[in-house]
Amino acid sequence: MTNCIHDHSQWGPGDQLGAANQLTPEMTLAAMALGTSGEIVDLSHVIENGAPFMAPNQTPYVITSGATARNSMKIRAAMGATNEVGANLERVGMTMHVGTHIDALGHFSIGEHLYGDHTIDESVGDFGLINLGVENIPAMVTRGLCLDVSGLDGGEHLAAGRPISADDLQRVCEACDVAPQPGDVVLLNTGWGRYFMTDNATYLEGEPGLDEGGAKWLTSQGVVGIGADNMALEVLPGTNHPAVMMPVHQHCLVEAGVHIIENMALGELVQKGITAFCFVVLPVKFKGATGCPVRPIAIL
Length: 300
What we know:
Strand content: 15-25%
Largest sheet: 9 strands, mixed
Structural class: alpha/beta
Radius of gyration: 20 Å
Helix content: 10-25%
Order of helices and strands: HEEHEEHEEEEHEHEHEHEHEEE
Number of strands: 15
Distance between the termini: 38 Å
Number of domains: 2
Mean pLDDT: 95
CATH class of the largest domain: Alpha Beta
Low-confidence stretches: 1-7
Shape: globular
Strand order of the largest sheet: 1-15-13-7-9-11-12-4-14
CATH architecture of the largest domain: 3-Layer(bba) Sandwich
CATH topology of the largest domain: Glucose Oxidase, domain 1
């Protein structure tokens, strides 16, 4: 970590975009050209009751029927309607970090400092983030790289607590004959996603993931986002736990301005042997939110 986090952003004090400043129309057109068949691969999970969440900060996803067709027909009939008009509505309670979701830059701090010279005092209000909320994340249509690290140790997936280092990433890139470049979103398939909603207890007890060195190698390549098929992107428990917690989040979000996408469904891409593709993610503009559910896709 640097000692002057607030001076870090290369795009100047007060910046809200972070590494996404690098995205250009030319990058979008180049990414779109990667799609040759028109096939779409959904990279998200269904968000439903029982979806795993990380305590103590998160709360479960809960959906209830706020209004039903049968009840609303009665209400409208009492108001004079004769056409049996029914409507179904729901109420959802959740954090923005349940299921497949993207982290806004204001999600993490290093001490009092957030990304881009912003501070907690000026940026965190009673009704969400004043700066660095998810509404600032642009629509991303860029090149995606799926790096399958699941077999590095010879199994179907890496073990919980197994760090993914810069050397690991470079070896996988060399084997696939690809290299991250500015504007890319890099997705890591650890194989841990097989436990999402099939064995939530295992999914949450720890995870293979990026160590700080691996994260710094990716951000140094100019990537604008990093995603994974696990709950927190980074290795849990961390390599220096409990003295240092969540250093990859601190580096990516606060120091590098790189967005994180978690709980991704990457198995189909890996099965198809796809490494490079047109990646699309459109974050919903929840004003002041620290993240939001997303439905990222790969266009092949």
